[in-house]
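I'd like us to work through together how a protein chain folds, taking it slowly. To get us started, please write out a protein record for me. Go ahead whenever you are ready, and we will take it from there:
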Amino acid sequence: MSKPSILVARAIFPEVLAQLQQVFDVDHNQDDVVMTPAELHSRMQGKVGALTTGSERIDGPLLNACPGLKIVANMAVGYNNFDVDAMTQAGVLATNTPDVLTETTATLALRCSWPRPAA
């Protein structure tokens, strides 16, 4: 039995890639080159899922070209690269990582605003 095929659109930690490869046939982009829309469309063919960042636009034309797509998981807080209406209409699940940077950003802001000791 063959594994379902996914696209990992940008570089990820090698150990995460290895875990994904245990379950999926993974088309990956460890060179971390931003794909053109045509390259993305081509590489999404036959995929059931994709792990994306904000640089990959998921829209109606891509979804129409990839009828087997079930999920697109964004490695980003936002999802403005997703046409949510088109994804909903196509039955494709959209996920993102909300609040992943909230605590880190707040900590950095606090540390930068604290008075520094005199030299």
About this structure: The domain at 5-113 is CATH 3.40.50.720 (Rossmann fold).
